């Protein structure tokens, strides 16, 4: 028997696994003493990068997101490979997807969702001061990139066009950062 | 054969299901023409509520989050029941978990994560002007509530204490809102 906070875990089994996700079902005793099951999903954690250019524009990718069955505007992101730091993953993804190498990097912590069932962290970074390199897309990726003025990206957060959590947090944090500098 | 953006879906099957999540595995043809599989997770969408009192404090819940195997500071949140609107779910959750009925409600859109595999939306709300009601916790919930000054909650976002995406977005948005009013 293992404890997880106020839960007791009597047993666990992998009910589904593929190269990207693993789903576990635990037999648990709830905080109130009742028996139940708990299903959780492990997903490869990764990095999301807001690239900000000298004109104050941010780089948004327009990509089909299979989970939600729709296209979505999001900052460049991708999973961390084995042995990589989240910063190294961020640098690799920005080079592969956008063909950019950045001199300046600033971390903005990580976001998680939905925390009740997912074991997944997305680390956030701001990247600036670019030189160009060759892109190398994966066969699963069809990405349209667009430099968008920060004020326009903020508008897209406010009007609900952007719903990707990591992207929203990055746009709000970068906006704060630039406003502080102006004052 | 069904199309999902640049993907072709040749077939789908439920590989795991419990009362909370459903996991599908699709047989797909990737955008580059290669055959593969794609696993997705359906999870009940819900609402997250930042309660803001007259002293400028926000209500944070300290709760064990089973997915990430750790305790987490988050705004009050919960799944939407069948037939409910997200606002109705927000009102019900705030009453059940915090014993609060709010007169003032403001929506702040929704957040999603991770969009590549999850079909899940979390709708965000600000609630103000409270009267009290009786709490009614579920047997799965052990929640410690704490009113925290907004500046302190913002500090908890900046130092990485808060990682729950919906909570971070709400704290940043409420901070913006109050700063606009002061000016």
Structure commentary:
The structure is a homodimer of 183-residue chains. With 183 residues, the first copy, chain A, is of the alpha+beta class. Chain A has two domains: 2-43; 46-182, Alpha-Beta Complex (Nucleoside Triphosphate Pyrophosphohydrolase). The first copy, chain A, contains three helices and twelve strands, in the order ββββββββαββββαα. In chain A, strands 1-2-3-4-10 form a five-stranded mixed sheet, with no helix packed on it. In chain A, strands 8-5-11-9 form a four-stranded mixed sheet, with helices on both faces. In chain A, a hairpin with a 4-residue loop joins β6 and β7. In chain A, α2 packs across α3 (165-182). The interface between A and B is large, with 64 and 64 residues.
Structural features:
five-stranded mixed beta sheet, 22% helix, 2 domains, homodimer, alpha+beta, Nucleoside Triphosphate Pyrophosphohydrolase, 3 helices, four-stranded mixed beta sheet, 183 residues, elongated
Q: Any chance you could write out the topology, listing elements then pairs?
A:
Two copies of one chain form a homodimer.
Chain A: E1 2-4, E2 7-17, E3 21-29, E4 35-43, E5 46-51, E6 57-65, E7 70-74, E8 76-79, H1 86-98, E9 100-111, E10 118-119, E11 122-132, E12 143-149, H2 150-158, H3 165-182
Parallel strand pairs in A: 4-10, 5-11
Antiparallel strand pairs in A: 1-2, 2-3, 3-4, 5-8, 6-7, 6-12, 9-11
Helix pairs in contact in A: 2-3
């Amino acid at each position: 028997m293992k404890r997880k906070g106020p839960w007791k875990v009597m047993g666990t089994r992998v009910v589904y696994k593929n190269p990207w996700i693993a789903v576990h079902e635990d037999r648990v005793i709830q905080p109130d003493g009742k028996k139940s099951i708990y299903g959780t999903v492990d997903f490869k954690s990764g990095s999301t990068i807001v690239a900000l250019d000298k004109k104050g524009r941010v780089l948004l990718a327009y990509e089909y997101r299979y989970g939600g069955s729709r296209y979505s505007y999001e900052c460049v992101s991708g999973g961390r490979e084995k042995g990589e730091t989240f910063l190294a993953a961020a640098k690799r993804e920005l080079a592969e997807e956008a063909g950019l190498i950045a001199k300046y990097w600033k971390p903005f912590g990580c976001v998680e969702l939905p925390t009740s069932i997912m074991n997944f962290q997305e680390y956030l970074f701001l990247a600036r001061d670019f030189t160009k390199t060759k892109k190398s897309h994966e066969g699963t990726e069809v990405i349209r990139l667009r430099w968008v003025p920060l004020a326009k990206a903020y508008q897209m957060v406010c009007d609900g066009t952007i719903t990707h959590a990591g992207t929203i947090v990055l746009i709000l944090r970068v906006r704060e950062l630039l406003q502080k500098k102006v004052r």
